[in-house]
Each structure stands twice: as structure tokens, then as C-alpha cells.
From TrEMBL:
NCBIfam families reported in the protein's UniProt record: sod_Ni_protease (TIGR02754)
InterPro entries in the record: LexA/Signal_pep-like_sf, Mito_IMP1_subunit, Pept_S26A_Sod_Ni_maturase, Peptidase_S26
GO biological process, one term: signal peptide processing
Subcellular location: Membrane
Cross-referenced Gene3D superfamilies: Umud Fragment, subunit A
The protein's name: Signal peptidase
Keyword field: Hydrolase, Membrane
Molecular function terms, GO-annotated: serine-type endopeptidase activity
CDD domains per record: S26_SPase_I
GO CC annotation: membrane
Superkingdom in the source lineage: Bacteria
Residue ranges of every copy of the Peptidase S26 domain listed in the record: 3-65, 69-105
Xref: Pfam families: Peptidase_S26
Length: 118
């Protein structure tokens, strides 16, 4: 497992896989502010974590949970609805704005681990 992680993180540096830092409480309790995540492109399905560009502010990345997925759009929601700006506010996100799925939390060290099942 450690070897796979080293390969993924090394690959992330070589091919610049996206990495994001969680800001704000919208994904509590699953993700905490300050969590750093490695993002891999790939298929999105309902229930999985997803990183998208904000449809109204493309420079802003959002970490949310895919609620509904169709050919053209993904509806996203925060795990903490009272603290989340998500598809309830800006509608479904076009698929072209989906960066991928966070698959590994690499920081902080005491919370590091795979996010496959979330």
C-alpha cells in the first residue's frame, strides 16, 4: 500500500494531477478544513466525492458529493447542507467542469488515507 501511495504521489508531481485543499465546513464530517486531497480524473457516479469548478466562478474549485449524474451534468451537494453552497444554489454542474474524484487524503498525516469508499 505504501508503494502504491508513493507511486501515486510521485506521478502527481510528474504529470501534475490536481491536488486540492478543503476550505470551509461544507463537507463535515467527511472532510475537514485543511484536508489536502489528491484528485484523479475518472468516472463520476452518484454518492462519490467530486471536485468541480464553480459554474459561476470557474477559478474556484469545490469539493462536494455527486448527488445525480447524467450525460451532460452532475448535481453536487455538500455533506453539511447548512454550510454548503452547491447545486441547490447554482444548479447542475456541466460535466466539462468536473476535474475528478478525490481519492487520497495526504495531509494532515494523522488523517491520511484512501477515500475510495466516500
Amino acid at each position: 500500500m505504501a508503494v502504491l501511495l508513493a507511486v501515486l504521489l510521485g506521478t502527481a508531481r510528474l504529470v501534475t494531477l490536481p491536488r486540492v485543499t478543503v476550505e470551509g465546513p461544507s463537507m463535515l464530517p467527511t472532510l475537514l478544513p485543511g484536508d489536502r486531497l489528491l484528485v484523479l480524473p475518472g468516472p463520476v457516479r452518484p454518492g462519490c466525492l467530486v471536485v468541480v469548478s464553480h459554474p459561476r466562478n470557474p477559478g474556484l474549485l469545490l469539493v462536494k458529493r455527486a448527488d445525480a449524474v447524467d450525460r451532460r451534468t452532475v448535481t453536487v451537494r455538500g455533506d453539511n447542507p447548512s454550510a454548503s453552497t452547491d447545486s441547490r444554489h447554482f444548479g447542475p454542474v456541466p460535466r466539462r467542469l468536473v476535474l475528478g474524484r478525490p481519492v487520497y487524503r495526504y495531509s494532515p498525516a494523522d488523517r491520511s488515507g484512501w477515500l475510495w469508499s466516500t
